[in-house]
Amino acid sequence: MKMAVVKFAIPLAMAFFAGSASAASINCNGQTAPDFRMICNDPQISRRDDQAAALFNRAMQNTDTTGQSALRAQRLGFQRQRGACNANRRCMIAAYDDQIATLNNMLRRPRPAMKMNRPNY
């Protein structure tokens, strides 16, 4: 009976711990790119990734289709910058800090007021 419990518990524990390695914007399982490995293995960079992803998602919800296209283009530029860092930790932290500041600034900008079409009486 004990052996049956052990046979069940080991795969369950492995699945739990394998699933815990992730950052908000990427799945860490099987990543080989140096920047992705750093995001997955460095808690400080992983937290920045989580923060940047949350800000990006919030910004996407608070803008129209044109703004969303601009945000996606901006994120692509950030991802290229982050990828160019390879395994340089300082570079990665600076890239994330810049991205977080950019997204925070975007979210602080007031949204344009809606134009109301009022009839002329």
What is the topology?
Layout: H1 2-19, E1 22-23, E2 26-27, H2 34-41, H3 43-61, H4 65-84, H5 89-108
Antiparallel strand pairs: 1-2
Summarize this, please?
Keywords: Signal. Residues 1-23 form the signal peptide. The longest helix has 20 residues, at 65-84.
Describe the model.
The longest helix is centred in the middle third of the chain and has 20 residues, at 65-84. 70% of the residues lie in helices and 3% in strands. The protein is built from 5 helices and 2 strands, in the order H-E-E-H-H-H-H. The protein has 121 residues and is mainly α. The protein has helices at 2-19, 34-41, 43-61, 65-84, 89-108; strands spanning 22-23, 26-27. The protein starts with a helix and ends in a 13-residue tail after the last helix. Residues 8-21 have low confidence and may be disordered. It has a domain at 31-108. Helix 4 runs antiparallel to helix 5 (89-108). 14% of the residues are buried.
